[in-house]
Amino acid sequence: MKYVGIASSPLKTKLLRNWKRGKIREINTELLVAKDCQRHLSVLLIFDENNSCSGNLFKGTLYYDYQRSRGKSHKSITEKIEDFYSLYLSIKNRGYIYSKGYIKITTNGARIDGSHRSSILFYLKVPKIKVSVLNCKTIFSSRELEKFNKHLFAQKKNFT
């Protein structure tokens, strides 16, 4: 199963707030990266080609345009790219550090937290990664679960 990212929402916030350490499972890194990660992968290429994260290099990329479409300023996008670059260099030079947190996924195919890290691991050709897995049924009411699954289905339709 491919995992797709979920947009920020009250339901995603509820999941993250109530996330107790899920079951730790090792999965193939390629399963964490769907089409929604293409914007991250394009930025990683620019990092490597330029050994830099200068904000002007990223204007017009999928990543930059996506952030603008969400109302982000050039300054906040540049800061986000700088943070992404720092994370990339850290994982590239030191490997994935689990004590800083696991990538969080659900049993029904949502990547709740870790799109940047997933993209980096895939880009660096790390074959497997340990993730924290949660069953949404343990957090959501049946009505919330239905709403969450509807959003997830739409994401999967768009990005897998």
Mean model confidence by pLDDT: 92
Helix segment tally: 6
Uncertain regions: pLDDT < 50 for 5+ in a row? none
Q: Helix/strand-derived class?
A: alpha/beta
Helix fraction, binned, reads 40-55%
Report how far the terminal alpha carbons are from each other.
10 Å
- Shape by Cα distribution: globular
Radius of gyration: 16 Å
Regarding quaternary structure, how should these chains be classified?
A: single chain
The run of helices and strands is: EHEHHHEEHEH
Spatially, the strands of the biggest sheet line up as 1-4-3-5-2
- Fraction in beta strands: 5-15%
**Number of discrete domains:** 1
- Specify the biggest β-sheet: 5 strands, mixed
User: How many β strands by DSSP?
Assistant: 5
Report on the architecture of this protein.
The protein is α/β, with parallel strands linked by helices and 160 residues long. The chain has one domain. It is 48% helix and 14% strand. It contains 6 helices and 5 strands, in the order βαβαααββαβα. The protein has a 5-stranded mixed sheet with strand order 1-4-3-5-2, with helices on both faces. Helix 2 crosses helix 3 (62-69) and helix 2 (38-50) packs across helix 5. The N and C termini lie close together (10 Å). The mean pLDDT is 92.
How would you summarize the topology of this molecule?
Blueprint: E1 4-5, H1 10-17, E2 23-28, H2 38-50, H3 62-69, H4 74-94, E3 103-106, E4 110-113, H5 115-123, E5 128-134, H6 142-159
Parallel strand pairs: 1-4, 3-5
Antiparallel strand pairs: 2-5, 3-4
Helix pairs in contact: 2-3, 2-5, 4-5
